[in-house]
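Example for tutorial group B:
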């Protein structure tokens, strides 16, 4: 059934609707704006400038904003970082991490309300420095790039990291000084040949070699780490104890490592890249595996790590990974060749165990120190040096341990 509604009712309903709409609009426009309501134009995106390990963030207000104290608001992505005021239009993020992509946005006050947020600042170019230090096995003394069949072992497992990751290598006193990617020139690609020179074993002289840096960098790169630079400071036949070259703070190699790390940090900053040392990998101890030196290895290694972390500087949470050496197979080879006998060989075996026990003790007493045992890795003839496969496997083990104890 159709129900007829008289026209006056329609007219009355329309009048009520108009009144309701006018009232609603009055309420909406009369409602006071909150402090977060945006008026005025958004400022330009903040600018960033690298100053050592800090980031200077600066911005400009909108042209119509009144420059009064507290008339800006800075947002940092991701949250959790602070920016210390550095004047009315800038601030500094001190000790900014190179492993985090920090971006910044700003807004300013306009007529008692906030402008819209600016666009985010440009991405900060970054460099993550990974250190490898130690003696001959950190160098790769018996790990030639080309095997006995003439195959380039690095080409077989080549990845994108080989060209993306950069390398700086320093052998300060390895008979003939070898420095790659340090000094005025830039760092080189990861697989740039490292050639042993001078008075070295005939099997190694003039041979392109590599150490654990290859697969260490490949594994870190594959895990998502980018902007990597490997600093390699190594020298064969060097000791930590008895004021040796690695002793802190005055040993020649210790000082070279600190100087090289600082040089790279400053060089990267001068190119507008935020740099920090994100991991240290240490393979040494063969020359301290001797009576008279092994007893002090725990104390000397503890001093080395704590001093190095302070001198570079790094955080106490920066991973430090020890490749535990073992001279046991080498001593047995010497025994078989009658190069040592009786008490002499027994003393070397005891010293070897003392150094390995010291490695374990240091890892147990200092935070963010990890261990990788090299005794299970394949060695070259003689039992002292890793062969090529041993170095490749070691690099992966070091990377995995770096990641497991805090490299992010």
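The residue assignment follows.
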């Amino acid at each position: 059934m159709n129900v007829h509604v008289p026209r006056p009712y329609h007219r009355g309903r329309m009048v009520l609707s108009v009144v309701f709409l006018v009232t609603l609009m009055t309420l909406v426009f009369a409602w006071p704006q909150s402090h977060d309501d945006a008026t005025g134009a958004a400022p330009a995106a903040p600018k960033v400038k690298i100053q050592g390990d800090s980031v200077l963030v600066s911005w400009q207000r909108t042209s119509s904003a009144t420059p009064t104290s507290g008339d800006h608001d800075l947002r940092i992505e991701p949250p959790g970082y602070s920016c210390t005021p550095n004047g009315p239009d800038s601030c500094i993020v001190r000790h900014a991490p190179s492993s985090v992509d920090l971006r910044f946005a700003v807004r300013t006050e306009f007529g008692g309300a906030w402008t819209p947020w600016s666009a985010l600042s440009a991405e900060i170019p970054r460099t993550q420095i990974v250190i490898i230090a130690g003696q001959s096995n950190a160098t790769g003394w018996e790990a030639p790039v080309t095997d006995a069949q003439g195959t380039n072992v690095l080409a077989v497992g080549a990845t994108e990291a080989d060209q993306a990751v950069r390398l700086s290598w320093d052998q300060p006193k390895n008979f003939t000084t070898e420095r790659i990617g340090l000094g005025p020139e830039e760092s080189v690609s990861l697989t740039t040949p490292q050639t042993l020179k001078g008075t070295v074993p005939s099997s190694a002289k003039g041979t392109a070699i590599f150490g654990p840096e290859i697969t260490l960098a490949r594994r870190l790169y594959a895990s998502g780490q980018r902007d990597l630079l490997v600093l390699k400071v190594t020298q064969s036949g060097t000791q930590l104890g008895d004021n040796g070259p690695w002793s802190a703070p005055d040993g020649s190699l210790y000082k070279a490592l600190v100087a090289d790390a600082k040089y790279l940090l400053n060089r990267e900053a001068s190119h507008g890249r935020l740099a920090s040392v994100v991991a240290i990998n240490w393979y040494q101890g063969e020359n301290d595996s001797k009576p008279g030196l092994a007893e002090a290895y725990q104390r000397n290694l503890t001093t080395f790590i704590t001093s190095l972390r302070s001198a570079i500087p790094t955080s106490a949470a920066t991973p430090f990974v020890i490749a535990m050496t073992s001279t046991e197979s080498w001593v047995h080879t010497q025994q078989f060749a009658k190069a040592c006998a009786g008490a002499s060989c027994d003393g070397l075996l005891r010293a070897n165990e003392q150094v390995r026990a010291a490695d374990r003790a240091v890892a147990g007493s200092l935070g963010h120190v990890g261990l990788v045992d090299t005794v299970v890795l394949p060695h070259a003839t003689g039992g002292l040096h890793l062969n090529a496969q041993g170095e490749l496997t070691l690099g992966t083990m070091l990377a995995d341990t770096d990641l497991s104890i805090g490299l992010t």
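The first helix runs from residue 7 to 30. Compare this with the pattern of hydrophobic and polar residues in the output above.
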